Amino acid sequence: MASDRADRLSQELLRDLFPRQSVFPASIASIAAIWQRRELLGLLVRREIRAKYKDSTLGLVWSLIRPLVLLAIYYVVIGKFLGATRMIANFPIHLYAGLTLWTLFQEAVFAGTGSILSNAAIVKKTALPREIFPLTSIGAAGFNFIIQLVILIVAVAFTTGFDWSIGFLHFPLAILIIVTWATAFALLLSALNVYMRDVQHLVEVVLMIGFYVSPVIYSWGMAAPHLSGVLQEIYLANPITLAVMGTQRVVWDPTPAYPWPSHLALRMLIVWVIGLAAVFLAQRLFNRLQSNFAQEI
């Protein structure tokens, strides 16, 4: 029996679990494979959330403590000591709006970068779309974001109020920008991190720099006088900068008198479309690199 089984196996042709296909059919096939395993994706997201707060007394409250502590520190140091509260009206709302968007992006990208390595055991033993692991990080970061967003909405409702005009569309577009670009970076960096382990440390440094080149602890009105011409366009080409300003446009200072960048909504729409293209390219590169993940891990 054993020898017959060995003979039959020896006659079987080797099959590539991740065959290379032409560009668009391969992307469609990947999306279909992820959709078929959407329940697994949901289970992994829940596992990620539970693991983060396992054996914790406060549990999900910790997802609020960090941004609130950062808010308090920046409010005291930047707002009071350095006088930002005198230059930025409703500084706490301005600050928390930026922190909420930035935290979503930071958590998604950083966790996504290490997602393949942190799930090495599953990657080695199970044939499934490996894109699920970076997407799990996006989902877990999105869960924390929703909790923080509720606090932001309540705070805005009792202070500045929302801009319910057509300008309100800046808000959902800002979230789409963050999620789209976080997905692109998570896919790309998670694949590169398997082959070059320094990537995760580099990402940590770049994210630290990225925080200060986005108008979170300062306003666009404070930065604009120091930027002109090409420098201003480079600054405004940052999708995270535009997403943060789009959110602030709705929840912080909805009055048209504030000197927002020209064509803010159009700029946001453009970087979102570019982000969709970036997701497509990142997924194609991920697909190219994933065939050797098990060996590299």
Q: How would you spell out the order of helices and strands?
A: HHHHHHHHHHHHHHHH
Mean pLDDT: 86
- In DSSP terms (H or I, runs of 4 or more residues), the helix count works out at 16
Biggest sheet layout: none
Overall strand count: 0
Broad shape:
globular
Ranges with pLDDT <50 over ≥5 residues? none
CA radius of gyration: 22 Å
Provide the structure class. mainly alpha
Summarize the amount of helix as a percent range.
over 70%
Strand content: under 5%
End-to-end separation in angstroms reads 35 Å
Task: Describe the fold and architecture.
It contains 16 helices and no strands. By secondary structure, the chain is mainly α. α6 (91-113) packs parallel to α10 (170-195), α6 runs antiparallel to α14 and α10 (170-195) packs antiparallel against α14 (239-251). The longest helix is centred in the middle third of the chain and has 26 residues, at 132-157. It is globular and about 85 Å long. The protein starts with a helix and ends with a helix. The model has no long low-confidence stretch (mean pLDDT 86).
